[in-house]
Amino acid sequence: MSNDRKDIMTYDIYVQMVEIYNEQVRDLLAEDKTDNKLEIRSCNDDGLSLPDATLRPVTSTSDVLTLMKLGEVNRTVSSTALNNKSSRSHSVLTVHVHGKDTSGNTIRSCLHLIDLAGSE
Question: Which of 7, 16, 85, 88 sits in a 20 to 30 Å window from 118, CA-based?
Fold first, then answer.
């Protein structure tokens, strides 16, 4: 869609992926794994509720899928009686879309995709 509209609108698309585990929010796309705990805040001027979470630019569906795989690798898992590798956390993948039209007007939107703990 962004390619079809490139004459009238330009889009920047970003992805964040976090998990909520034991009442803590962790950044699943952080390069530094030692201190990736986050605080939820009221939306700031950027419209981000997790401004300290890694925000990765994407240009295709395959970019998003690659980041989802990376996030899944970093997610907290353990075994249960029914599943030897069950997720123990809720994960939230957020797609942020920033658009700018030819007259300079901007729009911002986001889509949250949520995977609940143990929902395999």
Answer: 16
